Amino acid sequence: MTEQIVSLDVTDVRFPTSRELDGSDAMNPEPDYSATYVTVRTSGGAEGHGLAFTIGRGNEVQAAAVSALAPLVVGQSVPELLDDPGAFHRRLVNDGQLRWLGPSKGVIHMAAAAIDNAVWDLAGRLVGKPVWRLLAEMSPEQLVSLVDFRYLRDALTPEEALDILRAAAPGRAERTEHLLAHGYPAYTTTPGWLGYTDEKLVRLAKEAVADGFRQIKLKVGADAEADARRLRLAREAVGPDIRIAIDANQAWGVTEAIERLRPLAPFDPYWIEEPTSPDDVLGHAAIRRAVAPIRVATGEHCQNQVVFKQLLQAEGIDILQLDASRVAGVTENVAILLLAAKFGVPVCPHAGGVGLCEMVQHLAMFDYVAVSGTTENRVIEYVDHLHEHFTAPVTLRDGHYLAPLTPGLGAELHPASVADHRYPEGPVWRESR
Fold it and tell me: What's the CATH superfamily of 167-410?
């Protein structure tokens, strides 16, 4: 009998990061980093793990959305799914009734992300490869078959995507060797959470440089005087040669963003991240024109590949920050990487959270090996918490992500961590009440 997916389990897992204000920013002052954690199992005994990232309340809504999609997954033939993952993905995001809840946005789209990520984790485990390598060894034709071009053709055609991938193909082996030897550049947000004291900011910024990071990031947006003070302290701590990115987390309107950035310019911020609503394509373009040479970056809340397409067409961003679980998983992110390559915009993935570092490294490394062919002006975000809960946590050395060798996507949580942090019945939450 053909191997099938026989179950899809979803668990509401939450970590009490609000207690130390880890993850705090202008719009999310007390987050509890959480995972809508998905496990798919096959009749042959294999498993795949994926997740969507949330920040506490509402994770139960995200879990319910995953459960609503489960009938589209359970019973699927594993060989057929792995032979044509693009077709599976299109069925997942285009259900005739559930699509209405998006379409292709919000909770239902993030539910598709958790499932799609779990299926790619399963695929990697079945062939014994990390997902970055599984993708990087696919043919250009196989990769293009993953992409739904219906709403992209005015910006990227299948023929153009094939040209991009074929142009990168001759250097794949050499870049794979370089990646395995040297890793992929990272930057850290660990010093910059808005709830941290000035002393903690300075200490962590200096530690980041000592650990080999050449870029750090600070949260801004709550108080203008505090923004200037904290950025000045960070610049004094790291010196003139370390890049400092800043992140407003959507705190400002368009005009306000331009005004608030002017007094910060003397401290040479490398980029301003999420300066305004993530849906305001023309607003990002206006800010970008006004604040240059400060770069404009966004993407962690970008709903789907169509909005990324528009940001690129409107010249609204200098840095594209894709996310592992905001759009519909690995499959849609392949399309976004191809769009970025077409427009020549560097990709610096959003990470941190729960499991985002573990998953998103695969996307950036695949991009380097098989799509863009470069790491110039490209870095993956890194946040130093919650990795201990994963069976294959990220490994960094001298400010670089080391290429993962474990098969799959890296999203598997330790069973004990799931049991302890299951909401609301896990002991971590029972003891806090």
Answer: Enolase-like C-terminal domain (3.20.20.120)
